[in-house]
Structure formats: structure tokens, C-alpha cells
Amino acid sequence: MNNKTSSNILIVGVGGQGVLLASEILSDVAMRAGFDVKKSEVHGMSQRGGVVSSHVKYGPKVFSPIIPYGQADILISFEQAEALRALDWVKKGGLVATSRTRLVPPIATGGQFTYPDDPVTEIRKKIKNVVALDADKIALELGNIRLVNTLLLGAISSGLQFDNAAWEQSLKARVKAKFVDLNLKAFARGQNAAAEAVAS
Amino acid sequence: MKRLLSGNEAVARGAYEAGIKLAAAYPGTPSTEILETLAEEYRSVYSEWSPNEKVAFEVGIGSSLGGARTLVAMKHVGLNVAADPFMTFAYTGVRGGFVLVSADDPEMHSSQNEQDNRYYARFAQIPFLDPSDSQEAKDFVRRGCEISELFDTPVMLHMTTRISHSKSLVEENDPVTPPELPFAHEMEKFVMIPANARKRHVVVTERMEKLRKFAEETDLNVLEENGSDVGIITGGISYQYAKESMPNADYLKLGLGFPLPLEKIRRFVESHKTTIVVEELEPFYEEAINAAGLKVEGKEYFSRLGELSPYLVSKGLYEAGLAEQAKGADFEAESLFPRPPILCPGCPHRGAFMALKKLKVPVTGDIGCYTLAVLPPLHVMDSCICMGASIGNAIGLEKVDKSHKGVVAVIGDSTFLHSGITGLLDAVYNKSNVTVMILDNRVTAMTGGQQHPATGFTLMGEPTRQVDFVELCKALGVEEDHIRQVDPYDYQGTIDAVKEQMEKAGPSVLITTRACVLMPKRIIDRAYKVDLDLCNGCSACFRIGCPAILPSKEMTRRNRPKAVIDPTLCTGCTLCAQVCQPEAIIPVEEPSTVAK
Ligand SMILES: Cc1ncc(C[n+]2csc(CCOP(=O)(O)OP(=O)(O)O)c2C)c(N)n1
After folding, report:
1. What is the predicted ipTM?
2. What is the DSSP letter of B329?
3. By the CB < 8 Å criterion, does B29 face chain A?
């Protein structure tokens, strides 16, 4: 846990993956801690399988709801090539948590474009602090694909100043009662994965 | 506690707090969530999806006429559709306060153009308000109602994608009870025959004078003095970007963007060494200020194309010699594959466009999810201008182009009801040989699954009568045997049906019958898989552009990738199986019969 008083978190994924829940929970935690919070995303056309992103910024006072290029402290990605695409948004010394999910669009199945073989290795060449996990698989094991949101939040939680009680409170506020336990489990799994990644 | 609300949610809250009684709209990104939130959270406000923006606006006028505070919402291009009532309502003025929300889309995230609707306010000579976050979006609805009633004018609330879709903290208030002003016969004010309209035009010019005075005094225009010799005039989201770059400059933040407080601006410009205008898209403020004989800079440093951003504003301020540095960096060119939006796995539009691609006919297009068929690999569609345009385009093209047997117009169900009906009427009336293909997926999909007059439900969730497309086309005069339905999951059947309809003399209609797989509920059938022993790597399935079909690691002898289907994405529409020559695409086994 750190004591920074402001943070920029970029969340990316592919339209249809449901990346908005993670940013909702994150904004809620920051708001309850008394910060000014802004969050920005674009709905519409890109939700049909295009790149989607959500910017979350908090601090004593936030003006612009979007993060300047190169100024994200943390990047959360629901898809590994999208983490690679968004990598230059991340500050030096920033933290990346990505799912190893691989979504190859039809455009990259022909000859003109190719999907990179191993995006995570390429990411590691540029950023030291990377947590990569089979988020879809773990989420399905736990019982629901939507749990990817809380898994990835768990994975980046050490990069923010909120304690587990605060996360728990926001989870309870933002997910249906019957899913709270599962989400807490997913969050812990994400935290463990991150701890292991640091240890190794 | 404050709530984190998007600009659109805040406008809905604002409508509730202002005591607005009626809200009408047609969906359109980035405005859609305003009415959705009203219908979900503030059910004391009557809210409706109208068939199009013109009707929504007219319903709104009726409500104002009845003395109720009223809100209508639309995306920027929606106001083109509603421009007729809008321009004249500016003459009549209101009874109940009237707020028009125009949600513009700089950068065209989900739009066909990025027109700057601030000019519409000036065109119609009505005031517009320019919120810079959700708190203001909410508060300005009530302020808008008050200005509307005080000056007897409709008021525009100018939203942009970033304001509509960004969330920020909002302090909520209790709803107010607006003044009662019941319906009365006021013919001279509301019946715009020339004799009355001439008088009203005089009123409009007098009203503008009063509004100019108001602009000088109102606290909507905020002066922020920090003792700087740099002055920044701005409004909307640009204010936030500028503040992030130069928090200590002096600001004149325009909450009322038209009419401008030119005297206040004069004092501001004269008391600063440099004054610069930061605004998105067109130099709306800059030109008006320069025209008043004041020297300000602006568009020299900030693009009129697309959205601004914290970086672009900071870079512009730096290049103008005002900021010490440009915070942030230019985007690096991406070396990665692109990821354009695409028709979903199982989308019924896919079958329609596979057939049209096979037939190589001219296809005039329209706006909706199906417009995505223009992108490779489907790559079908020869025009897309505005909602409803496909049919008129087809009629014109067919009249002059004799090198083809006919023209097909493709149009979604919601779009047909929005503005396609009159096009088809023209095809009948003027004996056109077009084939109109109504892609009826039973929902307004592109904007997130809204109801429309053929879905059987209203915005507030009440069951209602459902338009029957066949009966409607008959009533418009299309001959009964020229109207056909087809299952777009039947590839050959769709090809045959299009051919058959095109051969008929006069206008013909072909209606597809499959519902959207995503909305209102997900439709999933048994998934399909590829038998890798049978797959010959011909890539026919790749060419239908389905996100569930991927190249496998396995290669043919000629080193071409065989296909694999992601079982979690496949909905079992079978279209890929129908184009697979070696019949390598087969249903997955039922779980109980998995042999192992
Ligand atoms: C005048 C105008 N209003 C609204 C929109 C936003 N919009 C684009 S397409 C569309 C409707 C799409 O529904 P439909 O025709 O049923 O096609 P689908 O997306 O379901 O395939 C809407 C509301 C627009 N582009 N222009």
C-alpha cells in the first residue's frame, strides 16, 4: 500500500467484455475515501467489439476526466494485446495488471495484420511491474466471467492506498448481494496472484 | 453524500429536481442515457421514446404549451431532423420552461459528422448553456428552465460526449415545484401564420437584447482572477483541460455561451496581456469576440478537428507562449493490428450482407449496427449519409443508373420507423424499381437496445401496440406479393429472396426475421466447432467476419491456417457452416454425449 494522494488508472479491454464494472468499483473506493473523482469512457459504436477504455482519476481536486498520454499510474487490461496497445499510456515505474485473454479480431486473421505471439513478454520488456493472470479461466472456475473485474482490481490493489475493508465496502455497494462473497474471493485471488508475481 | 454521476445521469437528475413533467427523445449517442435514467430512476417524470427527433421536439412543444416544464434530448444530428419545429419554436417562445439537450460528438466516436451545434442556438437566436462537469449539467437544467420562463424562450443545454459520458461528483437537491401555468388559447403567440410570425420575430430581437444584458450579469459566466497576465476564455470540457494545464491563469468561464457577455469580455481582454480562447471544434466564441473588435487568439493553436484533450490544450498553450511546458506526449504511431468495431457473433445482419456481397448489387446504406458491414471482410455498402437516407438514395440511383438490374436499400427497423417510411412512400408514388430490405432485429441495437414502435413496449416499460411491417408496407402501397420475409440465417435462402425481389417490377420489400442476439436478451444456441481433419484452410469462414472464428495453430500442407471456433463466443447461427465447402464446421456434441 502507498500513500499517494492522487492516481490515474486506465482500464482497457474489448467491447462486450464488460470493463465498466471495475472502474465503477474503483471510483467508489476513491470517493468514499474523500477524494475528488472523475471517470471517463465512451459508449456507443466501440462497444461492438472495438477497443474500449475507461479513465479513472482521483485526488484532492481533479479537472480533466481523461488521463494525459503517458500519465497513467496503473493500467488494467482485460485482454493481453490491448495491454500492449495501451502500454505507452503508463508512467515510468507504473503497474500493469492484465488478463492473458486472447481475443483475435477477424482483421488479424488474414495476411495483412497479425496478432502478436506473446504480448505479455513484450510488455515485460518495457515495464517491470507486471501481473499477468488467466483471469477468464480463474473467473469461470470461481463461477462467473464477470469476476474478471474484481480479480484484476485485486491484482492492482497494492498500488493504491485503500485497505481491504474499504474495497469490501465498495464491492458491497456495487455488486448484487448474492455475488458479494464470490467477488471477495476473486479479489483475494487477484491479490495473491500479484503477491506471487512480485515474489518471483 | 455526493454521488458519482455521468453528465447524462446528472441531466436526468436535474430534470427531476427542476420539476420537469415531460421528457421526450429519440435515442442517439451520446445522449441516450438521459431518458433511460429518467425512465428508470425518476418515474414521476413522464418520459417517452418518440419515433424520431422531430416528433420528440413537437411532443415537447405540446407539453410546454400545456404549461409544464419540459425536456427534449437528442444527439447533434438529431437536431437537424428536429430543426423545423426548433427554428419556429424560437419565435413562439414557451409557456412551461423548455430545455433542449443537444449532445454533440466531437471526434465522431459514434457519429457521421461532428457539426458544432452551438451555431444552431445562434441561428435560432436562443440562449445555450455550456456545462463543464456533471454538477453543472444537473444544475443547468434548472437554470435553463428558469431562463426559459423568464425570457420566454427555449434554452439549449450544450453537452458533448466527454461531458455526457464522464462521471464526476454531484451534490443533489430536492425537487422544486415550478410555477403553474395551465393551457390557455394564445393564438397570436403560438399560431405562426405570417401575420403572427412577423410580430414574433420582433419579440425575438427584443428578447435577444434582454438576454445580452442578462449575460453581462449572470453568475453563469464566472470570472476567476488569479493575478495572471494570461487570460483564458473557455467553457464546457475545454475549461477542465485548460485548468489542468494552467491552474493559475485568469479565467472567464462561459456557462452561458450565447449570447456572449461582450462587455465583460472586453474588460477581461483589456486587463490581460494575452487572451486566448480554448474551445472544441469551430471558433464559435473566437469569431464573435474578434467581430466585436477585440483581439484574442485561439484556433491558431487548437485544432478545429476532433476532440481536444488535456495534452492538446497544454500543447496549444505552450505553443502560444503561455504555458511553460506541454504536459503529456504525442501518441506514438501504433504498430499493433487495428481493432475496429464489428458485427457480433451470431448477428442476423451478417447473413443479409453475405447475400448482398454474393450478388454484387449496388447497396445504399443507412445508420445502425448494420453499417459495420462496410468494413472488411464483408465490405458491402455504397452509401451512408443520415438516418433514412438509404431509400431516397436508392430511388435516385436507380433512376439514373441503368447498368444494374436494380438497387437495394438496407435499413434497420428503428431507422425505417424514424425516417424510412416517407422514402418508401416515394418509391411507390414515383414508381421506383428499388428493393428495400428492412433488417428487422426488433430493437434499436446500435444505441444499446432501446424500444421503438415495433417492439411492443414503451420506454417506461408498458406494453403497447406493435407496428406490423408487412401491413405498414402494404398500406403505403407496396403490392402484397412484392413484400416477403426471409430468415437471414439461411444464406442461400436470403440470396434467392433478394434476387426474387429485385426481379419484380416496381418497389419491393424484403424483411429479415431474426432478433438481435444481444438485446433485449442474449440468444445462444448450440455452438459449432471445426473438425480440423476436414478443414482445408480455404478461409471462406474467415471472410464472413465473425469474431468467434479464429485461425488455429494448425496449418494445411500449403501452410495456411485452419480455422477454430471459440465456443464461448459462438451462438450457433450456422452461417459459417453454410459456406464451408468441406463441411468441416459441425455442432459441438451435447455435453452428455461427449465420448472420451
Ligand atoms: C438523426 C439521428 N438520430 C439518432 C442517431 C443515432 N442512431 C444511429 S443508428 C440508430 C438506430 C439503429 O437502429 P436500427 O435501425 O434498428 O438498426 P440496428 O442498430 O438495430 O441494427 C440510432 C438511434 C443518428 N445517427 N441520427
Report:
1. 0.94
2. -
3. yes
